[in-house]
Amino acid sequence: MLRRLQPTVHAVCLRITGNPTDAADAAQEALIGIARGLGRFDGRSRFTTWAYRVATNAALDELRRRRRRPVAVELTEAEMERARVPVADDLGGVAERLDAGRALARLPVDYRAAVVLRDLCALDYAEIGEVLGIPPGTVRSRIARGRAALAPLLAEPGTGGTGDDGSDGGNRLGAERRPTI
Amino acid sequence: MMSPHPDDERLSAWIDGEEPDLGGHQTCAHCQARVDRLRHVARAVAARPAGLGRQEAEVMVRRAVDAAAAPDDVLAFRHPRPGRTAVRRPRAMLGLAAAAAVVVALAAVPLLGGRGEDPDTVASAAPVVDGGDLGDQADARTLANEVRPALGLEPLADSNSLAAPAAPAAGDASAGRTATADGPAADTAAGGSAAQESTGATPTTRRPKRLSRSSTTCLAQAMTQGGPGLGDVVYRATLRWQGTPAEALAFRSAAGAGEPKLTVRLFVMSQTGCRLLVAQSFAA
């Protein structure tokens, strides 16, 4: 079971911490936590939701520990606010395109965690709220603002790979839940 | 003037299936473009980043299983960072770790006394003896004589006393061999003489300290080399093995019926990458 969880746990930790070494430490802590906590898992939530909570907490703990170390510059609240304007009006101001990992690292961690739990882990808003300890309405707002802030940082749709593994990605986990426009 | 279009929050929730209806704006070109952009972001984040290699992932899982079984491993296995000299941990966690270490150490006092307890009975509670830094080492016999006293074993008196160095691979603990990562195992003379000549150095008797298992950095890799039945780690030291910064890890296990009495297996792993440099076994 731990073998099956390891790739996703590591991916969550990498996306939230934005640093491979921190991610490895956080993923290790998370797997230890999962291995130790199996007996305490009460089944009130999905097992994967619980496992993601352990992974997210481990990643957030790791971020707290590294506060003394230099980190990528996060967007300020003012920049987040500017990102709320319609994306199409903002194209001229973007000088660089980042891969998903580096773009995520620019987001404030609260927004980053919500976006990762939604898009990488395919949790619904209620589950994300449970993991992060916030109401679903706040989850909705953070995901929307996080995506809006990420949009100008990422490569344009249709201009090539979007993932930092060189693939186009595709939301295999959550695609079935999305209506098409 | 207020925009007639749904805001980003509604669009974002809609692509997640958390907003039931956009009020007819599904067909609006302006909204369509914004939805495409948000969806593009979602896909980019959903693309799984490159993961760890299979071996690294396996080590991570093994460490988790190992740590879950050992209360003093709560804070184990942190990766070194450039310019990071120490890891600060919450005081409460340090207190818990210290309490766990005391309990483990008390439970394992008989092992260090060397009074012949059944290894099966002490293995799970064994502390890790800190051998400190052994300095430059290049000879299996000299290394054995550094390690043995710390484990309550007599230093080797002559070449016949080094018993059956073990091959590193699991299930290949054939008697009379010292294995190195650089080449095939070197056969030794009958009776278990060393593969390398003794330097004649006088072994130093170190007063053993006790460590948490978390002080070991190559534990999982050594366990992988040792295979099933390796037993618990009982000794750890740093050294330079033939010039390579390394970590020595010794495991104590019970010999099966009819097997030679090989109770301690010693692995020397490179500090960088945890490669196996040499392995040997001691008879008690």
Please give a handful of descriptors for the protein shown:
heterodimer, A: 181 residues, mainly alpha, 8 helices, disordered C terminus, B: 284 residues, alpha+beta, 8-stranded mixed beta sheet, 20% strand
Could you explain how this protein is built, in words?
The complex is a heterodimer of chains A (181) and B (284). Chain A is an all-alpha fold. Helices cover 55% and strands 0% of the residues of chain A. Chain B is α+β, with helices and mostly antiparallel strands and 284 residues long. In chain B, a hairpin with a 2-residue loop joins strand 5 and strand 6. The interface between A and B is large, with 67 and 55 residues.
Largest sheet of chain A: none
Silhouette of chain A:
globular
E-strand count of chain A = 0
The mean pLDDT of chain A is 75
Helix content of chain B: 25-40%
Cα-based radius of gyration of chain B, to the nearest Å: 27 Å
**Principal-axes shape call of chain B:** rod-shaped
- Could you tell me the strand content of chain B as a percent range? 15-25%
Distance between the termini of chain B: 87 Å
Give the terminus-to-terminus CA distance of chain A. 37 Å
Number of strands of chain B: 8
Low-confidence stretches of chain B: 71-77, 82-89, 108-125, 159-208
Percent strand of chain A equals under 5%
Number of helices of chain A: 8
Biggest sheet strand line-up of chain B: 3-2-8-7-6-5-1-4
For the sheet with most strands of chain B, the description reads: 8 strands, mixed
**What sequence of helices (H) and strands (E) makes up the elements of chain B?**
HHHHHHEHEEEHEEEE
